[in-house]
Protein: N-terminal kinase-like protein
Organism: Oncorhynchus mykiss
Amino acid sequence: MWSFFARDPVKDFNYDILPDTQDKSGIWTLHRGKRKTGGEPLSVFVYEVSTGTEEQTQLAKAAFKRMKTLRHPNILAYVDGLETEKSLYLVTEQVTPLAAHLKAQSERGGSGELEVSWGLHQTVKALSFLVNDCHLLHNNLGIWAVFVDRAGEWKLGGLDHMTPENGDASTSLPSAKAVHPEMDKYDAPESPNSGEKWAGDVWRLGCLIWEVFNGPLPRASSLRSLGKIPKALVPHYCELVGANARARPNPARFLQNCRAPGGFLSNSFVESNLFLEEIQIKDPAEKQQFFQDLSENLDSFPEDFCKHKVLPQLLTAFEFGNAGAVVLTPLFKVGKFLSAEEYQQKIIPVIVKMFSSTDRAMRIRLLQQMEQFVQYLNDAAVNSQIFPHVVHGFTDTNPAIREQTVKSMLLLAPKLNESNLNQELMRHFARLQARDEQGPIRCNTTVCLGKIAPYLNAGTRQRVLISAFSRATKDPFPASRAAGVLGFAATHNYYSVTESAARVLPTLCTLTVDPDKNVRDQVRSTTNTLHIALVSNITYLLLNLEKDVMSSAQPAGAAASWAGWAVTGVSSLTSKLIRTGPGAEGGSPAENTPVGGGTASPCSEVKPPPASMTLPIASGLATQSDSPKVSEKNEEPIGDRWDDEDWGSLEAGDGWSAEPAGDWGAEESWESVDGSQGLSKAELAKKKREERRKELEAKRAERKAVKGPLKLGARKLD
């Protein structure tokens, strides 16, 4: 039992005092501390009885008692305390001495007049509360008695010398100059009780104002020099330090005078703070107007004030005050001052809750400003809590919401999972592109699809992109057609050579005569892009397939083979209207072998094709036989030698050649094909054999004619 009474109460104190964090504040030492259980940062004022005098101990105990009983928003807030025989511990909200705060602000560029105006407003309001409501005299007002919290708000402390206004001698405390002789310069020049009861405190308020703008007060006579005191505050400051004690204003009247139009305390910052303090009793219309104006003023407000004063009020207004979408703009502006961790803790939960709102104004504001907070959203929250609500915007009857929903996918796509991105989103995009009555929405859907293509899986790209952009090129809205063309250009690296030649280029070719000039211009640049991509991908393929043409030595039957290939190509482009002719027969396999028994290397020197291989479409090929000619040796139809896929690739490579078609051998006529000069060796050999056969038949007939009819012998007839 005796061990219980012998326990040290300081060890059971629920607060830790951080080492090497102390500032002198009168008879107290200010330490930074934290709560043991939650780690909440606090301030701890410590007074050591052993190091102080009896008068100082009396003042410390009086201040300890006053702090427990006084409650006001502008007075330093009491949290907890501990009194022992050795020490007094006074725990308050986390604060910094005003002198240290002003010094730190000056190193960062100085405190603005807005911040100082609100701080003075709070200090005077606290003094007015003590004098007019509590009938107490502070008797210790000065820069050492004012503290600043995390939000930058000024709190009045230093209650060591506080006494009732009509106190008797038994309740009086030692004066400030009795404990600290250097405080004599802050005392009013008149004798006590020669003026109003608040005269001494109002004089010290004037000293405080002087020190805030000019630094430490060297002597009482320096109060006559205005220094850096703002002009709007000068008349009211002069009233505070006037020689006539009875003419000094009551703190409440001083506050009223400074709040008059044009006064030092009449500005948007003070007005906003006053409104936030009374926001719970304001009408909804007043709240709406305030939040609209607040968004414009936040840029000029101090950062700490926005983080610790405005932000909690905004969150409370949304959570409990039904403020609606109007809080979003100031909320996101304040969010720029937060760290990533603070943003996750304070704003993201509210945003996730906002997405489930049925208020259209709220939803469209969220979509419009998504860029400001999307980087703080994690993938799990996007897929499970945000995307299911956002997709309702695709089917909304309001076109503005549908449009903003489409645009928001540019930001959400990187965070969507496989199902939401490749299935759910593509389903909505397909419906919008095909059925939405608004042309700009169809256009934006196409543009968005092109931009999010890198996030789609390969199967979805293969299935969706070409079909979607092809559909867009047939849209009656010109911007949608242009978007489809740009989509092909932006995603050309996702198409195979065959797809580009057989599906993309034919679609683009139909737009070369589009009535809209912008569409035609986009087609021109896009086809150039695809041409370069195709040439770079199929150069080796072309070299192998056309090695006979590009070799320096022409093998036997090469002209016939090229003629058959060219006719096949032309017939495929003209729906089989042009067929091969009788002179396009291919030679035997032996005749198709290059001279010397070798084959042309794919890396051999590339030369233009001979002039005899030019096939003007205006030639008389359309009158030839409808059935393709079959060669005598291999029995293979020349017209079917290339399948459609191979032709598609070659057609693309040939059609986008740097040299215009028709320039090769334009000087030479196709009529030479009918004569012997244009025949190949195989055809010449065939013709010679035919002539030789005819000559032999003629000689045989001549011999028969010379010999006469065959005599079978005479027969005698009866």
Notes: The longest helix spans residues 517-545. Strands lie at 15-25, 28-35, 41-48, 78-83, 87-93, 95-97, 136-137, 146-149, 154-156, 163-164. The chain has a mean pLDDT of 76.
